[in-house]
Amino acid sequence: MRDGSGEDNNVAPSVYSHVSRPGSHRYKNAKKGLPFNLMLVGESGLGRTTFLNTLCERAVVPPSEPPNPDQAHIAEPMQFKHYAVDMDEDGMKIILNVIDTPGFGNGTDNETCFNQIQEYLETQFDDVLSEENRIKRNPKFKDSRVHALLYFINPTGHSLRQIDIELMRRLGNRVNIIPVIGRSDSLTPRELVLFKQRIMDDIAAYGIPVFSFPNSEDDEDDEETVEENAELRAMLPFAAVGCEEVINEDGRPVRVRSYPWGVVQVDNDEHSDFDRLRYVLLNSHIGDLRERTQNDIYELYRTEKLSGNTASAASNPTADATQSHATMALHPRSVAA
Ligand SMILES: Nc1nc2c(ncn2[C@@H]2O[C@H](COP(=O)(O)OP(=O)(O)OP(=O)(O)O)[C@@H](O)[C@H]2O)c(=O)[nH]1
Ligand SMILES: [Mg+2]
């Protein structure tokens, strides 16, 4: 679907001030627009649709109809829904392709969802691989490899759940996973700090390969970039808040969620990490995410595929899902890498 912006757009005005950060103009010469493929995964109701509309500043996805109560017990199978939105980020044209996965985690058998997503990611690699092998290349070939996967974590305030651990461990070698706490305004600032810490402890303990803002291995990064990456690492997982309405404050539009006791400002760094995450995705790290997809993740897959080794435990740490489920249930921290 092409940009489906509607008239009743309550996430419209751009209200954040764009401050250029290092690396943000690296791709300014991409005249045709820089493609960026972003996948959204998370259980139902964690705010994926609202996040997408807030990110794009328009109603890309119209609000869904409330489910029919008679059908509520039937778990809909997971789908891949595609949205394409042309964005202008600080003078740089970005062709944002979003793949949403409604229905993820709805059933009792999450294994099917994990397999479907893995298969989707690998199919895009296979397409590139066969295009590379053609004698005559197709000039219109569209590279659909997913550059980043935002994984929405339920704001329980406890720690990661089995579904989170399994999904991220399994796909971390196939895509840049950026963990995000959905509906994070349901936690107090103190709860949020503790929750973030627990999640990062789990990520370390289970050896989950998330995108952790690495510095360039050959020390190419300048001091400012190294500092910025350290700051972003410390923010993980990002606390996301989606916009519900736009209010007028001192003559300027402010994107908020309103509550009886006050408002949460979506673009205010003191209220949520939304603006930093948006900037990472569409500006400061768009190049890194694309390059890592090509140079590291795709290359690994390509090597495995050509050597007939794609199902190896190294690339798929949960290949023996039954075993790993049992291990984790009994000894939550015993499978540390
Ligand atoms: N408190 C809070 N509520 C949110 C936030 N974002 C979305 N919501 C609300 O959560 C509900 C679900 O939001 P959606 O954006 O539809 O969630 P989704 O992940 O797309 O859900 P499905 O499409 O059903 O899988 C709606 O009532 C939203 O208004 C948020 O940041 N904070
Ligand atoms: Mg949705």
TrEMBL record:
Keyword Amino-acid biosynthesis: no
Pfam families: Septin
CDD domains per the UniProt record, alphabetical: CDC_Septin
Listed Polar residues bias regions: 309-326
InterPro entries on file: G_SEPTIN_dom, P-loop_NTPase, Septin
Domain Septin-type G: 32-308
GO cellular component terms, semicolon-separated: cleavage apparatus septin structure; septin complex
Aminoacyl-tRNA synthetase found in the keyword field: no
Molecular function as annotated in GO: GTP binding
SUPFAM superfamilies recorded: P-loop containing nucleoside triphosphate hydrolases
Keywords: Cell cycle, Cell division, Coiled coil, GTP-binding, Nucleotide-binding
Region (Disordered): 1-26, 309-337
GO biological process, one term: mitotic cytokinesis
Family to which the UniProt record says this protein belongs: Belongs to the TRAFAC class TrmE-Era-EngA-EngB-Septin-like GTPase superfamily. Septin GTPase family.
Protein name: Cell division/GTP binding protein
Source organism (scientific name): Coemansia reversa (strain ATCC 12441 / NRRL 1564)
